[in-house]
Each structure stands twice: as structure tokens, then as C-alpha cells.
Design a protein that fits this description.
Domain K+ potassium transporter integral membrane: 2-359
Shape: elongated
Helix content: 55-70%
CATH superfamily of the largest domain: Amino acid/polyamine transporter I
Order of helices and strands: HHHHHHHHEEHHHHHEHEHEEHHEHE
Keywords: Ion transport, Membrane, Potassium, Potassium transport, Transmembrane, Transmembrane helix, Transport
CATH class of the largest domain: Mainly Alpha
Domain K+ potassium transporter C-terminal: 372-538
CATH topology of the largest domain: Amino acid/polyamine transporter I
Distance between the termini: 28 Å
Strand content: 5-15%
Structural class: alpha/beta
Function: Potassium transporter.
Subcellular location: Membrane
Strand order of the largest sheet: 5-6-4-3-7-8
């Protein structure tokens, strides 16, 4: 369910920029009815391409513009709404009474239920509010929403409704039609800029959720760049960005200004909300241990309300609503294939990991030689060593005189203190050490000399006693004889006797593994010192 929700959110990241910018640019057709749809679509595509090309600079570079734009949008639209209420229908707020919606459903029956699908677009954006937590505090978001955003939306929608009651035929373009002529062009500019900011929020949300999925090993590894030294949530992924750009522009040019894109958008938004409700309920029960009565008070009203909307928007699937499901199915296949492969690999590594005792047994064999030099052997297992170590020693019958097994650990902090960056320990066999390199999202591992950092930490660990001096001398001699950085690469060998499911899923995983980035971050080690060792695991 969480994979489906994430895939839907990525679909949201494709559709929000497309529909937001497209609907804003359609305002050109008000004063100039002769402007063709193709012109509106082309202008929207150009704006979207520009927006995606700016992503690599990070939101912090342009975020100083967001507040004035959103303030202008938040405070001008309700003013126009108030003007429209006074001018067209002062009694509009009686629509808040449940009496009218009950009459509406009694009168329209099935058709009234189908119309619910159209109202979903009024609440879009709320499903991506989590992305704001990467930039602002929870209290700040609550204050902004309750003091400005919510009152602004209510007054704006009330004003549009008041206008439409007296101008029923203008429902296809209710926003621009209710804007008074003297302020039309200023509102067009504000609406276009606000649409770009709204697009940015979903693009940022997509980057954020992709990054979290990569960390949790649910998504193939893509490059994730932290664009802020201070905010962990401000991230950018080049591959994700350009795929989103291509899909966004394709949606604009393929669907155009018709109802299909709105139908697709409605399906995505309400599905994300329903899945969020179910997942939050599980969190309340399993993690927060919330009393069942309170869980029911939250779950029942929201599921009934969102379930009604979901059932209504599902009728729109043949009319454009199929798009997010198509995107989600493809993404879910990618995620499930990757997750299945990673789980099988992890199970094998844990079952066949090399313990310190086993390492001592391997090195004690008479045929195993200790060759001169310093070796950094990268292992991704916290408790033990990767099976590739055993594979290497058995086949090469050797290990370097000084071998450091390095594990990289990513921490959710900006920078790790220099004193805590490199942690070292003896592993038992002579000349064999364990090392954990900790780094934060703003740390650059490629900028410094990792070899110097680790050897410096080892010297401090040895101390100044006679035994420590001997170890330090051996370390320096090994470094003089040459340094090598060894990375293991374990691949699946899917034999003929494997089941069809494994053949398909692991074959797909191997394809994804071949085109995605390395699990190790860029360490800046010289090319001539790098060695990769492959190992086949027969399924």
C-alpha cells in the first residue's frame, strides 16, 4: 500500500506542474479568444522546461521569491472573492449549511455522486504538505494554514460561487471570468507565478520521497544532491528531475487543455489522501498505541468521506484517470522488482556473512599468504563482513599485510564532527582492522583524502606504547608498498532450475542494478587504486 501511495505521489509530481501552469496560461484566452490551445500548450511547456532546468540550483536560491508570490496570491484572491460576494450574491455563506448538500444529493442522486469527482480539485495540494516539513516547522505550517491559506480559499471559492450563480454558463473558466477587468492582467501574472510555486512544491515532494525510498532500499539508486547546507529536506535528483520534465511536458502536449488532465489529477490526489489515512491509522495503532476509540474517531469519518470521493473519481478512469494508474503500475513494478532483489541479496549476505572468527580461520590456513600493501575492503554489513571477503581469500589465497574493512554509515545530520567521522577497531587477526566512516548530507567524501583520515585514526588508536609503535610502523610500511581500494559486486546467477518468478524478478533486478548508481558514494580515490571483485550467487 505504501508503494502504491508513493507511486501515486510521483504521479502527482507529474500532473501538478502540468495542470497548474496550463490552467494559469489559459487566462490568455480571456482577453484574446482567438489564441489557440496549441499556443497555450506550447507556452506552458516552455515555462515547465525552464522550471525543471532551474531545479539543480536548489529552492534556497529562489525561495526568497516564493513568500511575496504566495502572499500576493493569498491576499488578492480573497479580496476579489469579497468583491464578488457583495456584487453578485451576498447570501452565499448559507451554502455552508448541510441542508443544501442533502437536498443536492436527494435531487441529483447518482449524478450528484458522480459530480463529487469534480470537487476534488478544490483540495489539491494538501496531500503534499509533508514536503513543507523539509523547509519549515510544523507550528509554522499550522499557523500559516489556519491564519491565511484556509480563510483565503474559503473567501475565494465563495466569491467564485457567487459569480457562477449569476453566470451559470461560465463554469468552464470560473476563475478568470470572476476576476474584474481592471485587475485582470495583474491577477494573470500572480496566478502564473503562483502556479509555478505550486509546481515547485510537488517537484520538491517527489525528490523528497524518492530520496527516502532510496535510503530504505525500495527504489533503484539515483543521484541525490543536498542543495542546502542547513536543511536536510532540500534535495535534488538529476535523473528524477529530467524524467519528470519529459513526462510533464508530454502530459501537457498530449492531454492539452481538456478535462482529461483534470480527471487524472483528481484520481491521484484523492488516492494519495485515502492511502495516507489508512497508513496513519496503522501508525496510530502500532506505534503511537492510541486508544481504539480515538483511532475510530479519526479513521471512520475520513475513510467514509475520502472513500466517497474515490468511488466518484473512479468513474473518470476511462476519461483520463487511467494515466496515474499506468504511471503507478510501472513505478510499482520497478520498486517491487528492486525490493525483491535487494531482499534476496540481503538474506544471502546475512546467511553467509564472514564473522571475525571465520576470518581468523581462513587466514590461518597455510596456503593463504599476507602480501605487502594496504588494502581498504568495503563492506556494507554492520555486524560481520560481506561474503565476498571469503570468496576473495579462497580464490586468491592471499590478503594484504594490513587490511581495513570499511563500512560507510550515512547520518541524518548536516556534518559529522571530525572526531566522530572515522571510528576504528582491531578485528582479531594480525593486521586486520574494522573502520566505520560516518558522514552527513552536507559532507563531501570525495573532497578529502580518505586514506590519510583512516590511517591517522589508526595511529591514534594504536597509542604510543611499544606494541602500538610496532603496529604504526607496519601500517606505514604497508602504505609505502601501495594502497588498493577493493569493492565487491555480488550478482545473481539465475540458473535453468530456478522458478519462473525468480527468473523474471531477479532478471529485472539485474537489469536495474546494471543501470543504477553504485551503492558507495564518490570517495575520490585514484582510479589506479580501485579494484572491483565480482561474485555470482546462484539462485
Amino acid at each position: 500500500m505504501s508503494i502504491l501511495g508513493m507511486c501515486m505521489l510521483i504521479g502527482d509530481g507529474i500532473l501538478t506542474p502540468a495542470i497548474s501552469v496550463l490552467s494559469a496560461i489559459q487566462g490568455l484566452r480571456g482577453p484574446f479568444p482567438s489564441v489557440r490551445n496549441s499556443v497555450v500548450e506550447a507556452l506552458s511547456a516552455v515555462i515547465l522546461i525552464g522550471l525543471f532546468l532551474l531545479q539543480k540550483y536548489g529552492t534556497s536560491k529562489v525561495s526568497f521569491l516564493f513568500s511575496p508570490i504566495m502572499a500576493a496570491w493569498t491576499f488578492t484572491t480573497p479580496i476579489i472573492g469579497l468583491y464578488s460576494i457583495v456584487h453578485y450574491y451576498p447570501g452565499i455563506f448559507k451554502a455552508i449549511s448541510p441542508h443544501y448538500i442533502v437536498r443536492f444529493f436527494l435531487r441529483n442522486k447518482k449524478e450528484g455522486w458522480r459530480m463529487l469527482g469534480g470537487t476534488v480539485l478544490c483540495i489539491t495540494g494538501a496531500e503534499a504538505m509533508f514536503a513543507d516539513l523539509g523547509h519549515f516547522s510544523k507550528k509554522g505550517i499550522q499557523i500559516a494554514f489556519l491564519s491565511s491559506i484556509y480563510p483565503s480559499l474559503v473567501l475565494t471559492y465563495a466569491g467564485q460561487t457567487a459569480y457562477l450563480i449569476n453566470n451559470v454558463n461560465d463554469f468552464s473558466d470560473g476563475f478568470y471570468k470572476f476576476v474584474p477587468r481592471p485587475v485582470y492582467w495583474p491577477m494573470f501574472i500572480i496566478a502564473t507565478l503562483a502556479a509555478i510555486v505550486a509546481s515547485q512544491s510537488l517537484i520538491s515532494a517527489t525528490f523528497s520521497v524518492i530520496k527516502q525510498s532510496v535510503v530504505l532500499d525500495y527504489f533503484p539508486r539515483v543521484k541525490v544532491v543536498h542543495t542546502s547546507q542547513h536543511k536536510e529536506g532540500e534535495v535534488y535528483s538529476p535523473e528524477t528531475n529530467y524524467i519528470l520534465m519529459v513526462l510533464c511536458v508530454s502530459v501537457v502536449l498530449g492531454f492539452g487543455a481538456g478535462n482529461a488532465i483534470g480527471n487524472a489529477f483528481g484520481v491521484v490526489v484523492i488516492m494519495v489522501m485515502l492511502i495516507t489515512t489508512v497508513m496513519l491509522t496503522l501508525v496510530m495503532i502500532i506505534i503511537w498505541r492510541t486508544p481504539p476509540v480515538l483511532v475510530a474517531l479519526y479513521f471512520v469519518p475520513f475513510v467514509v468521506m475520502e472513500g466517497s470521493y474515490v468511488s466518484a473519481v473512479f468513474t473518470k478512469i476511462p476519461e483520463g484517470g487511467w494515466l496515474p494508474f499506468a504511471v503507478s503500475i510501472i513505478l510499482a513494478m520497478v520498486m517491487f522488482g528492486w525490493y525483491y532483489g535487494r531482499q534476496r541479496k540481503t538474506e544471502y549476505e546475512i546467511a553467509n556473512k564472514v564473522t571475525v572468527e571465520r576470518l581468523g580461520e581462513l587466514l590461518a590456513k597455510p596456503e593463504v599468504q599476507r602480501v605487502p600493501g594496504l588494502c581498504f575492503f568495503y563492506s556494507n554489513i554492520q555486524d560481520g563482513l560481506t561474503p565476498i571477503v571469503g570468496h576473495y581469500i579462497k580464490n586468491m589465497s592471499s590478503l594484504h599485510a594490513v587490511t581495513v574493512f570499511v563500512t560507510l554509515r550515512y547520518l541524518l545530520v548536516a556534518k559529522v564532527d571530525e572526531r566522530e567521522r572515522v571510528l576504528v577497531a582491531r578485528l582479531g587477526p594480525d593486521g586486520v582492522y574494522g573502520c566505520t566512516v560516518q558522514y552527513g548530507y552536507a559532507d563531501s567524501l570525495s573532497g578529502g583524502d580518505l586514506t590519510a583520515q583512516v590511517t591517522g585514526s589508526l595511529r591514534r588508536h594504536f597509542g604510543t606504547a611499544e606494541a602500538g609503535a610496532e603496529e604504526a610502523a607496519r601500517l606505514e610500511a604497508a602504505r609505502t608498498n601501495g594502497v588498493v581500494h577493493v569493492r565487491g559486486k555480488m550478482r545473481f546467477y539465475v540458473g535453468e532450475d530456478a522458478g519462473w518468478f525468480d527468473k523474471v524478478m531477479l532478471g529485472f533486478y539485474e537489469f536495474l542494478h546494471g543501470i543504477c548508481r553504485s551503492a558507495l558514494p564518490a570517495l575520490g580515490t585514484p582510479l589506479q587504486q580501485r579494484v572491483e571483485i565480482g561474485m555470482l550467487y546462484k539462485v
